[in-house]
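Handoff note, outgoing to incoming analyst
You'll be picking up this chain. Sequence as last confirmed:
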Amino acid sequence: MVEVREMKEHVTETKSIEHTETGVLNSATSHAVEDNNDRSDSIVADSVESSVSAGGSAADPAVTSAVSAGIDSLLCLDLLPRLRKDVQVRYEGSIDKQGFNADWDWWLYKEGKEWVIFDVDGPGCVYNLVQHRYPDSEEPTFFFYFDGEEEPRFQIRHAEFGQKAPFLAPLADQYMGPDDNGRGPIRVVRSFVPMPFARSCRITTDIRLKGAAKGDGGWGHVIYHTYASAQGISTFTGQEDYNELLQQWEHVGDDPKPQVEGQTVTLEQLHLPAGQAVTVLKQYEPGSIVSMTARWHQDSTVEIPRSLLHDIWIVAHWDEHEQPDVACPLGAFFGNELGYNRIGILSHGQREDGQWYQYLPMPYWNRAHIQLDNRGSEDVDFAQWEIVYTAANEQLYPQHDTGYFRTSAYYPLQARQGQDSIIGRITGRGHLVAGQVTAFARTPGIISCEGDVRVYIDGNATPQVESDGSESWVNYGWGFPTPPEMNPATAYDGLPDNPWSMVRLCSGDCYPFRQELIFGIESGEYNNQYLRHSGILLYYGQDENGMVLTDELDIGNKASEGIHDYRTEGSRGYCTLESSYEGAADDLRIADTGHETEGWSQFVMSISPDNDGVRLRRRSDQMIGRQRALVYVDGQQVQERSWYVADRNPYKRWLDDEFEIPVRYTAGKEQLTIRLEYVQEGETRTWNEYYYWMYSLL
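Most recent structure output, in case you need it:
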């Protein structure tokens, strides 16, 4: 066990070399000691330990509240472990509605002279905006409308990204992509500027974003959060002070978290015997890991053998968990499975001086056990391995409201012909904060990034997050032609187009889940390529589910309608639809019978009396967009939002969408009478419903 001692100075403690059954740890400044508790299965590395102030820029140490929407959600990386309450992640973008690779024509509908590309009702926050165009195409201007405004509150031209406040680099910038087979280079504008809104948000452009031909270029996306309540949300004005966040993003490689008092365990000349595990930290009191850093060689120009990125694993157990919370190859842990070039983002990566860093906080409440496993066939030596931990953050991490730092089961390099590669499947409650995906095609230089990322959350049959190609998920252009590329939230390495390895930090736009999260990626345009993928997800989570299914209503089933006292006015009749959902299973045809009304429908659903709000999920036909209904609970209208879906898909027509009802309408109740009143928008003429699921939030 590594001994913990409080020291006022950085002092090396001299000990004799201990010979063990599994080998000797040689060190110039520290020596091996025997771990009496775990001698049979590991070697324990001795350390130089000292008291330090760990972290980045100073901040108020008394901050104890959960992270709020907007700037703080990006700025406060120390609060990333706090579980998100009443938050959902969503995507709007230019996905090919037929399921192929024509990921352009990004628009929802036309309003006057403007083309609407984003339209959401209710409180939320835009966290990521990306749009691609060819430089010789007509330049669009983006207009942002908030909270029902008739005049735009803010506007920005394509060429102004990175230059017009608050869309300043590195929070927002432009990236010049590849030539694209003679059609000219692609210019990508991207923004991570958080734009919260209390009531609604609409984004428009003055031209239609369309086409893949030369002179065109309109594909892109918005990733955003929705909130059950507008409490604490201040709508974006464009005059917010982003200086602290900009400063943080300008210092990638430094720990972005506030300073705390901590202890440093420094392991010099760390020797890892082949096939053995070395314990590098054991603690038996509450605390959190502030950072882990490593150097392969004191000379930063000496490259690490790439095999070690897969042979050396970081394995961590928090508290009394039998299964490891973290089990991750070295390369994925530090953000690069290939290691051709140095890349780094805010949370993890490799600095210019060669040092690897991992700054995501890792809280625990009883004990921490971290070891390095050498799963290769040769001994390995590291020049240095350093872990900083602290007990000072205990007030930030109430156990019932905080997730453990965890990794999904590592997805080893493999091909799934004709199917999405499922990089990670997570259960329980928590939120995804980073993802790592690597891909190899059969032939060097082949474009292998066209596959869409698709993320399914809590059993929704419709992906909650998608991307028009792998490279768009990490905010780059067409292909991965010029590695390495990086910005503070995303990066990729590899050889031109194949292989490639990408990493994405989701700090503001984390992906909350209450039961399950499934992260998949296509192989090629529509799973039509032979690609081998590998990867892992980094997340904060607890084992317990955060919601439970408490009732179901099958529209068109007379018995189910009777049980739920289903009634309607303004009926347009029942109809049966056979279609499919968007996403990985878009070839699976499902037939269901539903109902349409131009008036209202009403039904009773059972819920758990100890709920913390509820979530009502609907299966609907999305052939026509802009479906809207007012929601009433026991006669009281939900004021936070209407039930509104602006998008449509006339090809893959099934849609699962959800409406979250805050706890102030549901507390202590065992059943709810739900009334949905249709509101005409655009070309819609009815509200349609095929199936309802009621979930009680816990």
